[in-house]
């Protein structure tokens, strides 16, 4: 499990956070009329990227097999 701010993160928790971050990114994109280069949209995209990278790291360390 990966640690985020001292809290153990498993795949299920990360999936929930990824989905919430994805929805927030979509809403920000809509709020800024589809302007993907707005700083808030870019920042949220980076948050989502980080969560996806964390998820991939957990999957590498703990394969489903």
TrEMBL record:
<dbReference type="InterPro" id="IPR037208">
    <property type="entry name" value="Spo0E-like_sf"/>
</dbReference>
<protein>
    <recommendedName>
        <fullName>Sporulation protein Spo0E</fullName>
    </recommendedName>
</protein>
<dbReference type="Pfam" id="PF09388">
    <property type="entry name" value="SpoOE-like"/>
</dbReference>
<dbReference type="GO" id="GO:0043937">
    <property type="term" value="P:regulation of sporulation"/>
</dbReference>
<dbReference type="GO" id="GO:0046983">
    <property type="term" value="F:protein dimerization activity"/>
</dbReference>
<dbReference type="InterPro" id="IPR036638">
    <property type="entry name" value="HLH_DNA-bd_sf"/>
</dbReference>
<dbReference type="InterPro" id="IPR018540">
    <property type="entry name" value="Spo0E-like"/>
</dbReference>
